[in-house]
């Protein structure tokens, strides 16, 4: 991953009784060790995200891989 790369990740938020998962797309604007600053959204919001959680735009997301694994496991039954 490099500055300027377009990436996506799954952003997880927790409240008292709810867990929310959102697919987020953005562009890396800075990298500091194992953490990247990524700008995203209409207002160019910036989040710090672990590099291990980021995926290139051309690759599948974590949720897609999870769903495909569940479907695949159920086909073999």
Notes on the structure:
- By secondary structure, the chain is α+β, with helices and mostly antiparallel strands.
- The protein has one domain (about 5-75).
- Helices cover about 20% and strands about 50% of the residues.
- The chain has one helix and five strands.
- The chain has one helix at about 60-75; strands at about 5-15, 20-30, 35-40, 45-50, 55.
- The protein has a five-stranded antiparallel sheet, with no helix packed on it.
- The longest helix has 14 residues, at about 60-75.
- It is globular and about 45 Å long.
Q: What count of structural domains?
A: 1
Record field, number of beta strands: 5
Based on Cα principal axes, name the global outline.
Answer: globular
Work out the radius of gyration: 15 Å
Low-pLDDT segments, ≥5 res? none
Structural class: alpha+beta
β-strand amount: over 45%
Helix coverage percent: 10-25%
Widest sheet: strand ordering: 4-3-2-1-5
Oligomer: single chain
| Ends distance | 39 Å
The chain-level mean pLDDT equals 90
Write the layout of secondary structure elements.
Layout: E1 6-14, E2 19-32, E3 35-40, E4 45-50, E5 55-56, H1 62-75
Summary?
The protein is an alpha+beta fold.
Describe this protein with a few key phrases:
single chain; 77 residues; alpha+beta; five-stranded antiparallel β-sheet; 1 helix; 5 strands; 18% helix; 48% strand
